[in-house]
Structure formats: C-alpha cells, structure tokens
Amino acid sequence: MAIALFVRLRRWYGVFGILLWLSGCSSEEEQAPPAPVVIREGPPPIAKPLYTNLGTFIVNMPGDKYYLKGSIQLVLETPAAKSWLDVRLPLVKDLVIRQLQSVTVEQFDDLKNRPLLRASLQSRINSLFPNNPTWEDESPVRKILFLELYRQ
Length: 152
What we know:
The protein is of the alpha+beta class and 152 residues long. The protein contains 5 helices and 3 strands.
C-alpha cells in the first residue's frame, strides 16, 4: 500500500514539474529582479535645452594684477523664460561682470570654488526672474556653462 502511494505521488510530482517547466516558471525566475544600477544622480536631463550666449567677459581681478576671461552660456528649459531673459540681457551681463570682478586670485586658483561660482551665478541670475512667472518653473536657468574660464 505504501509503495502504491509513493508511485502516485511520484507521478503527480512529475506531472506538476512538467507543467511548471512548460509554463516557463522556475524558482530562479520567481526571485525579484536585481535593482537597476544608478549611473546618474540628480534631476533628469533637459529634453530640449535652450541656450543663451552671454558672450566673453574680461574683467580685472581684485589687486589689478590679473585679468579674468570667461565665455558663458546659460541653459534654459522654457521658451517663455528665454524670451523674457533675452529682453533683459544687459542686466544679466552686468550681474555677471560684478560677480566675476569679486573673484580673487586665491578663489580662482582653488578648483573647488568653480562649482560655487557656477551656483552663485545661477542663483543670482534666477533671482532676476519675476516672482509669479507665466511659465511653470520659478528657477528657469538650469545650468551655467563656462566655455572658457582662465586668468591672464
């Protein structure tokens, strides 16, 4: 009697195993997939960036011994913000000149200060935009690009 029960169970396990194999399920596939590897952190990239060229700036550094030369572009996301900024480009250029004139030689030579300069320029330019804009983003300048930045 025990042998007959063993044979029946063996058949059921065999049939069950074949059904699992045919359905494509296995114990390995039932495990959760591995977490995706994060390659890039931070905000998603801009789908259609809009660039505004501010031109090249040559300013005296404090101490009047060196000049600072830099070419700067702004990256915006919304066309309305870009058109608003293009009308007020002289204000932006004046702000950039004042900011670059305040950079000392020691600050410029320390490479850790470059991201701080970039962030400071970005926040100051974004402060020029209205408090209740017609576009969604209150900080439309997404990036500051230095095409060249060196002292002479």
